[in-house]
Amino acid sequence: MESKGSDIDLANLSDAEIRLICYTTATVLTLTWLWSFLNHEKSLWQRLKGALFGMLRSLPFVGDKIQSELNKVLENIKNEEGFRTHDGEVFTTKLPAAGLGKKEVVKRAVEMDKLLGGADWRHGRVSGAVYFNSSDLSDTLCDVYSMFAWSNPLHPDVFPCVRKMEGEVVQMTVEMFNGGPNACGAMTAGGTESILMACRAYRQVGYERGIATPEIIASYSVHAAFDKACEYFRMKLVHVPLDEKTRKVDIRAMRRAINSNTVLLVGSAPQFPHGIIDDIEAIAALGQQYSIGVHVDACLGGFLVPFMNAAGFPLPPFDFRLPGVTSISADTHKYGFAPKGSSVILYSSHELRHNQFFVAPDWQGGIYASPSIAGSRAGGIIAACWAAMMYMGKDGYVDSTNKICTVARKISKALRDVPGIFVLGEPNVSVVAFGSDDFDVYRLGAALGARGWNLNTLQYPAAVHICCTMRHTESGVGESFIKDVEECTAEIMKTPKAKSTGSAAIYGMASAIPDRSLVKEIAWGFLDTCLNAKH
Fold this sequence. Notes:
Blueprint: H1 15-38, H2 44-58, H3 60-78, H4 101-116, H5 135-147, H6 160-176, E1 184-188, H7 191-208, E2 215-219, H8 225-233, E3 236-240, H9 251-257, E4 262-268, H10 280-290, E5 293-298, E6 327-330, E7 343-347, H11 350-354, E8 358-360, E9 368-370, H12 379-415, E10 422-423, E11 431-435, H13 441-450, E12 456-458, E13 463-467, H14 477-492, H15 502-512, H16 516-530
Parallel strand pairs: 2-3, 2-4, 4-5, 5-6
Antiparallel strand pairs: 1-7, 6-7, 8-9, 10-11, 11-13, 12-13
Helix pairs in contact: 3-16, 5-12, 6-12, 7-8, 12-14, 13-14, 13-15
């Protein structure tokens, strides 16, 4: 059978031609492997460490010892406050055979809350978590929520009022951040989802440009939701260092990290760990210069920073006044004083927002479209968020911003004068982070915990922070915190080289473990414990 002219007659190939085919194939395969190796989501150093520690854990004695220590840590977690079993505690693991009725259900909820207790958030002993202190606002939100408890914005024809409320929440937030006529946005279930939606939008922009693995550049202090987004959406997060003194992102390092795959630069206003606002003006200028999107993560301070100028704490521009800023995330459920489960993601244009939408045009159930991750959403939360913003008004937010920033700066100033500790950077807004060069600062966090304070523990560098809320503006709360820090620090300085114990030791150990997969296992154990009805 004769072959076509375009076919290769392998039988008649010369040795030189066969070698050429083999060399070409080998070269293509090698280059493909090399590209995959160099563009892996983990760095070469991370993979080498992972392989090394994996080999060590496979050794019988070493692996058994590590597992034994890991089990001890996990057991200690179960004995921590919030997890330990209380006398008289009953665990419900099956549906009641018959419904209990309103009176009995409420009675059991009250009894459970009283028995389990928890940190004293009502008197300002907790960092962040609960941001306002008005029973009248709480009553208002509950009243409005109850009106729309069964509503779902997935059905705007059935619940047009909730649809209108969501649109008004978004537009009011656009105005707060000085958005132009094309600025728009959407509500989400929280800051993490707002960040996820923004990253998804920029990923789609990257795909449209032919980028297989779009990259995001952000500082090491940026919120972990960006790590989550990159894992979910198969993007690459390129971390760049902070200035060690200011704790702001290093702009020169950010510039050096930009390449043809970069689709997004991120700045925080402020960042969560140390409460520092990045140089948003410089980041926005980079975005404009390289035609790259710029996201401002204002999830924490989104209802503080827009009002700081009016409250007497002037800030440089950080929002849509800067031409390079293309999206902003802001949590309504923090300093917006809305119930938990509400946030806003804003964009400079409708075209960019379209990239976060999901549409299934060919589903047999009809054309399906949703603006964010969830399909059905809680209309009651949207209504209560709208109610919080209407209740507060601009004057209310200016007043709360003034009070919160005032107490935060008072704490920051006082802590700088405490021998043995230092404040990280120059906190701009509501968070004050402090560390120590003289002793294990986790000991200080534990000592303050013993006095009833519930603070946030940080790592790289080891530190503790307090996130000030309206609860901390009440009479004597800030002064009490400063006094306790002074007294606990003075006591620790008597034995500065002593080691941490209890939960402080666990956190210190976790920060020092070079094999981060072990830390993941500890975190898995913690989450398992959180979700376990029977401790």
